[in-house]
Amino acid sequence: MAQEAIPQGYKWWGGGKSPFNVSYGKLMMWYFLMSDAFTFGAFLISYGTIRFSQEYWPNPNEVFNAFPGFGHANLPLAFVSLMTFILIISSVTMVLAVHAGHNMDKKGVQKYMLLTILGGIAFLSCQAWEWTHLITGYHEVLVDGKLTLLNTTVSHNPWGPHVEYNGQHVGTPGPVAFGGYFFGITGFHGFHVFSGVVINIIMYIMTTRNVFHNRGHYEMIEKAGLYWHFVDLVWVFVFLCFYLI
Amino acid sequence: MEHQASSPEISFQPAHRTDTVKRIWKTTIVLSVITLIELALGFGLAKEWYGNSHTAILIVKGIICILSLAKAFYIVSIFMHLGDEIRNLIMTIVVPLLLFVWFIAAFLWDGDSWKNLRREYNKGTPAKQHTTVTKPEAEGPLK
After folding, report:
1. Higher pLDDT, B18 or B26
2. Which residues on B lie below 8 Å from A51 (Cβ)?
3. Which end of chain A lies in a sparser environment, N or C, as judged by fewer CB atoms within 10 Å?
4. What dihedral do alpha carbons A99, A100, A103, A106 form, nearest 10°?
5. What letters, b where the CB count within 10 A reaches 16 and e where it falls short, cover B104-118?
6. pLDDT tens for residues B24-37?
7. Confidence (pTM)
8. CA distance A239 to chain B (A)
């Protein structure tokens, strides 16, 4: 929100009020999110370091090319686009809930919180499908001169470079770190989405029970909203590092 | 009911904006369009539109990274309303994040250095498949 005019020479640090013009809770939510950004940043940078140190890294368009209901059709980026748009839309409904809260519109807050929760659940369902697909999908690869079936786990994966074997084009085991980083980072993000959904459900129940209405403001919705947008923000970079480049 | 003071610590209440909803939808469209451009560029990478040129692929990936940063800016500035907070608050969030500049550069450099060191001192071991794929005969007498 834009502010009313602030007089010249106003003493922010005179005590008795927030020098940042926000409540303590909201300020600490910002600082928590900043520290969480460093946690995710460290994970993604570690992934980048290992990826840069390898001669070969799996091609995301080869690994993530499935879409539920389309069998073995080669559809790179399709499913992850769906997941990305689900998260963007749930971010929009969240910001609309915050806006409804500013106007003390309880019905609006309820409606948009419910949509945000549904978006979060839809995203988690997509992730569950994707993990299941990777863990249960076996591919024939060449291990020690023999063709072996490998799935994608934290200890092995079939996404190595292709080689010629008996006139056939076959895959080889990929870098071990790939599975660990993929499941580790998307799992940590998924855990954030899950906790965000739980927080949003609690906010929905509190709204329904008039807690915020009686308090006179819906600032808690704003704080939950900050967390939810952060989850969307992190996905921008997970999406970038694992699926796009 | 009008908006009330959410906390006595707050000195200046946010002014009532009439265009908030319009701004939200505008940002939604911007985010969607950027995502679609990213997907188009990524689809090009998948379909090998840019050929085998390492530089061309690097440029496309660089553009995708910059577009992601633009998305991050819109989410933080508009959806999280950081752009509407006072300057001192913005700075306490943004300035520490500058650490990422060093963080990313140093560690990617380190990863690259590891790759070069392995190539030089540990031939064959970390990238066994790669070396056998590219020059199978060269490994012959060592086995």
Report:
1. B26
2. 111
3. N
4. -150
5. eeebbeebeebbeeb
6. 999 999 999 999 99
7. 0.88
8. 9
